Amino acid sequence: MTGNTPTKTFPIHDALEARRSPRAYSAKAELTPEQVGPLFEAARWAASSGNSQPWSFVVGFRGDEVFSTILGTLASGNALWAEHASALVANIARTHTEEGKALFHAWYDVGQAVAHLSVQATVEGILVHQMAGFDAEALGVALGLDDHHRVVTVMTLGLQGDVSDLPENLQERERAPRVRRPLGQSVSGSANYA
């Protein structure tokens, strides 16, 4: 693992502390649907508003058409390193029910599902990096999504690669210490963690 862990105010689970968003992926490592299955199972068990479960995932493995489709919509800075990941995943929100009622919390719920997925991935020894740098409209069209589905984020799945294979500026980012603002800057009210 690269980078240092910030000081914690309270102890947390090892999987949460170990989670990273790497860019150095092994271009030789391959993952199978069976290996990533537990990740999507963990996502399936996430909480959602009204139990609407408004998430879905489109998975492409390196070398297949889905992977190429997703990769083709990434910003060039992301595509540079993401092409080495074992899989690319489009994280999708269903924004309305079949009856047309808006699911206002869908994006939040997708985030919860992906958070569950990322923790399970850490437990399984699989790395995840979520990205907002992609063309969501183009990817939605390429995946044949209707007006009630939106790609929220894209993520990589894979195994650790050699940091020295990255461009120099990304090597620096990969090795930089992890930074988290103090707990007191995130929590207020009756709980004072200053």
Report the top-level CATH class. Answer: Alpha Beta
Our measurement of the CA-to-CA distance between the termini, rounded to an integer number of angstroms, reads: 30 Å
Helical region count? 7
N-to-C SSE series?
HHEHHEHEHEH
**Rg from Cα:** 18 Å
For the biggest sheet, the summary is: 4 strands, antiparallel
Please summarize what this structure is:
This protein has about 190 residues and is an alpha+beta fold. The protein is about 35% helix and about 15% strand. The chain has one domain: NADH Oxidase, CATH 3.40.109.
Describe the model.
The protein is α+β, with helices and mostly antiparallel strands and 194 residues long. Helix content is 34%, strand content 15%. It has helices spanning 14-18, 33-44, 65-71, 76-82, 106-124, 136-142, 168-175, and strands spanning 55-61, 87-94, 127-131, 149-158. The chain has a 4-stranded antiparallel sheet with strand order 1-2-4-3, sandwiched between helices.
What layout of secondary structure does this protein have?
Layout: H1 14-18, H2 33-44, E1 55-61, H3 65-71, H4 76-82, E2 87-94, H5 106-124, E3 127-131, H6 136-142, E4 149-158, H7 168-175
Helix pairs in contact: 2-5
Q: Key features?
A:
194 residues, alpha+beta, NADH Oxidase, 4-stranded antiparallel sheet, 7 helices, 4 strands
